[in-house]
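Quick entry, no commentary yet.
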Amino acid sequence: MTTQLQIKDFLKQFESDVPTHLAYDWDNVGLQIGDSSIPLKGIMTTLDINEAVIDEAIALGANLIISHHPIMFKPMKRIDASTTRGKIVKKCFLNDIVIYSAHTNYDRLEGGMNDQLARRLHLTNIDTLVTESTLKRVKLLVYVPLTHKQALDEALIASGIGTLGSYEACMFETLGRSNFLPTEKAHPFIGSINVRESVEEVKLAYLIDEDQIALACNIIKEFHPYESPAYDLVPLLNEGQVQGIGRIGDLPKPVTFESFVQQVKATFNLEGVRVVGQDSKIIKRVAVLGGSGEKFSFDAIDKKADVYITGDVTFHPAQDAEQLGLNIIDAGHYLEAVMKEDVQSICREILMRINRDIIVDISSINTNPFSYR
């Protein structure tokens, strides 16, 4: 009989795919409301949380809502059920609803928000718009008895370890013998106290990023049979994954700004956008950053963008961009609604990986507060 999957166990898998450590320090990602120890019945993805979204989740039978924007972005000093957020908190607890947020960690994720925006625009030669750091690479060497090699390797690979460029599940193995003598304080999995043992083992080698070290160590401790597993973490000079925000790339063929604006509206199902620049300008190189990205306008200029797509652009930065020849499409925050479909795919892949048949719905509620006349 298959045991019920608790929400916290699903979220553990989700966080291996969308790590919370990628979020900015000022952000509040992860569990927002609810008891994650309850069984998972259904999942719904949404850009924002409001009462209508909660009602929709209840109607669909989804007890885990994954939003992009955190409902607890600003701390609550009190829970007053007569307020907007207080009503939401009350309704969640009365209906066993859990709310979880993947915000700037999803924005900064390779394959996350900004890659998905670039993909939908059919950009080529895609690069990071704003490089913030480059992860250091580490070689993980772990020594394990043959009896437990498969379980340990599968657990490491399932967590995302073993990725090398466009290849996944990369590992090199070497057979050898391990020799050890358990002391009186030991509780050996193999062997006897004060008797030196010689055991056939295999050395597994993986290339990992420095931010995967804690994850790898936890998996080794969980799946390795020895009370003191032997493993090495060897720093390398290889450059690892570039971490940053936004993407820049080229259109398949140049178009006028006027045509490109219509393309953006159609692609992202937007009623209207605010624009800066001449309609007749030819657009080839495009920078895009979901959310509030006006402070990165000069990065778009430095990387020779013809147009910059973002949200929440204010008056004077828009003037500066215009004077410097950068066209802007302010598509607002609702541009990020693409995450509903993309996070649905991530959740479905996880459930398939762990062999669970749970429905993942997309919220149909339009949470955009703006309308266009």
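second:
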Amino acid sequence: MSIIECKNLTKFYGKHRGIENLNLNVKKGEIFGFLGPNGAGKTTTIRTILGFLHKTSGEGSVFGLDISNESMQIRKKIAYLPGELGLYVEMTGRQNLKYLLSLYDVDVEWDKVEQLAKRLNFNMDKKVKELSKGNKQKIGNIMVLAPDVDLYVLDEPTSGLDPLMQMEFYKILRERQEETGATVFLSSHLLPEVEKVADRVGIIRDGTLVEVSTIAELKKLSLKRIEIFTDEPDVIVNQIPEDLIENLMIKESHLDFVCSTTNLPNIFQILSNAKYSDLNITSPALEDIFMRYYSIKQDLEEEKKEEE
């Protein structure tokens, strides 16, 4: 059964494209990661399927209800965390939460709110104007996780949270989903976060959904960016086989490149005899993953043509 379904859904802002011919199917009871760089169309998609924006063309439904004509009924059955949550700055976190939770059509047990605040290490009695970005985000996290609903729609829910709180948030989210059997639509530009919790992932780029994959399939694209600080960048590059690295950039005192995690042991073996002052290993930008994805896809298509 599909909870969210879109067929050729399109939204233009005047002459500017938000999303175009987007086809999407989110199944009941799954955590669906909606992944894309900033500006790809994630928020436009969410706001259109929830009826906050009027579609330009195409079709969309949530719970089988039409997104244009039945958006009020849709929103009664969901919990939604927007990317930018408006809060009353002169009120405390507690006061904001009591007000926001009163807007739901379902009753919310305050004990559950207290438990969530404790797990997220959030002091509800400070005024919002005194809070950091991360603590303001916790108000939204508590607001969206407290009610029992059929669908949770989360737009960049961990923005501003430190790594420990990000981990705790996703732990709670998974627990809530398993307890209630609810569906989760999770928007993010951070692959390492999404892959920890999602069952499937949709990749959006330039307003179009380019692929839907399981996490197992997506992990085949697992990459790391390596930055090496050295006085001999050319010497090190000449020691590394070209087929092990991608997106190579060489500067005067350092070099950086992207490689598959499966190639890391070979890279480390080569670097064990190299001269360098520092080395950083990070998760690459989402655009690097997209380029890797498109490269693999193109190779597969060319192989298929050769076989034919």
